[in-house]
Write a structure and sequence with these properties.
Keywords: Membrane, Transmembrane, Transmembrane helix. By secondary structure, the protein is an all-alpha fold. The protein is built from six helices and no strands. It has one domain. Helix 2 runs antiparallel to helix 6 and helix 4 crosses helix 6. The N terminus is likely disordered.
Length: 210
């Protein structure tokens, strides 16, 4: 009888152990899995996204500034060119008898064209970049660098001819054209600086923004 009692205790102990194991398995199945979040990784991703968004907003603001400056320069080109055309016939007659007058007429036409074309292209490029019509990366960087070089070159070219010019008394149309041309030169120089800044931002974004 004693042996029978001990065997019965062993069976009860075994049954109790099995019951405990089954209960633990059910609890583990019903328990919600724990998801581990690495705060360092989360903060790193958040900082990267914030930096990328900041660069995007900064670049957009620079392109908007380029659009405004280029449009203003183009507006003054629409003033200076018609005013100078009023004196073109007399300039052409003078060019027939004077080499210096001929050179002056040629440079006047070329500098006015450079100002108008430079402002128009700057406006076109800035609008395309602001509207994301140019893919980001090397193409966008190339467009920004080209905009900086083009507008700076146009400003220097215009200044080389018009800096020595002065107002002519009582000749309103010519004086207005001269003032507008100097405004075009200043606007192109300023937008060239903005293009240089956007080039730096684009390069930084390309290298470190990912």
């Amino acid at each position: 009888m004693r042996e029978f009692g001990e065997a019965r205790k062993v069976r009860l102990s075994s049954s109790s152990s099995k019951h405990c194991l089954q209960t633990q398995n059910r609890d583990s199945e019903n328990r919600t899995p724990f998801i581990s979040i690495n705060p360092t990784s989360y903060n790193s991703n958040f900082n990267k996204n914030s930096s990328k968004n900041y660069l995007t907003m900064l670049q957009f603001a620079l392109h908007v500034a380029q659009i405004g400056l280029s449009a203003y320069a183009l507006y003054h080109a629409s003033i200076s060119i018609p005013n100078l055309q009023k004196w073109e016939k007399s300039s052409e007659r003078a060019a027939k008898v004077s080499k210096s007058a001929e050179r002056d007429l040629k440079m006047t036409r070329q500098t006015q064209a450079a100002g108008a074309v430079g402002a128009a292209l700057s406006l076109l490029f800035a609008s395309a970049l602001a509207l994301h019509l140019v893919s980001s990366g090397f193409k966008s960087l190339s467009t920004n660098v080209f905009g900086a070089l083009m507008t700076a070159a146009a400003s220097v070219y215009i200044g080389g001819h018009w800096d020595a010019k002065g107002n002519i008394p009582l000749v309103t149309s010519y004086n207005d054209a001269l003032r507008s041309t100097q405004t075009i030169r200043g606007q192109l120089a300023l937008v060239g600086v903005v293009w240089a800044l956007s080039s730096v931002v684009e390069l930084y974004s390309l290298l470190f923004g990912k």
